[in-house]
């Protein structure tokens, strides 16, 4: 019986080392796979972010060009030029000037709304 216990303990110790080595190999392989997965995931997220940034930047630039067009200004005009153009155009197309003609009044309301949106965009952009 004592002999059997000794043999069992020896086998358990030796097999335990084998199992532990196997677990370490598996965990190293799993860890490497996990790290590779994380790297791929980060690269994919970065790629998606760059695409979204590029697309949103392009869309924002197009929107900004449109607002400059509404204010009848060249792209890249200063905020002072924007204020002057806005005041000039809002006086020209103010709906109160066309209260006698319903069709012109409706057009003036639409134009003044576009002018207000464009000017609000530039106020926000320039921090005014």
TrEMBL record:
A Pfam family that the UniProt record links to this protein: DnaJ
Superkingdom assignment: Bacteria
InterPro entries xref list: DnaJ_C/III_chloroplastic, DnaJ_domain, J_dom_sf
Domain J per the UniProt entry, residue ranges: 66-128
PROSITE patterns cross-referenced by the UniProt entry: DNAJ_2
The protein's name: DnaJ domain-containing protein
Native organism: Thermoflexibacter ruber
Taxon lineage: Bacteria, Pseudomonadati, Bacteroidota, Cytophagia, Cytophagales
């Amino acid at each position: 019986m004592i002999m059997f216990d000794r043999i069992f303990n020896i086998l358990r110790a030796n097999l335990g080392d084998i199992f532990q080595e196997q677990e370490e190999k598996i965990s190293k392989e799993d860890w490497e796979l996990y790290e590779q997965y994380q790297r791929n995931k980060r690269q994919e997220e970065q790629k998606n972010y760059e695409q979204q940034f590029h697309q949103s930047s392009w869309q924002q630039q197009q929107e900004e060009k449109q607002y400059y067009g509404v204010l009848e200004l060249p792209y890249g005009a200063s905020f002072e030029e924007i204020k002057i153009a806005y005041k000039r155009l809002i006086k020209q197309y103010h709906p109160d000037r066309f209260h006698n003609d319903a069709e012109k009044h409706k057009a003036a309301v639409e134009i003044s709304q576009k002018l207000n949106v464009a000017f609000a965009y530039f106020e926000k952009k320039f921090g005014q």
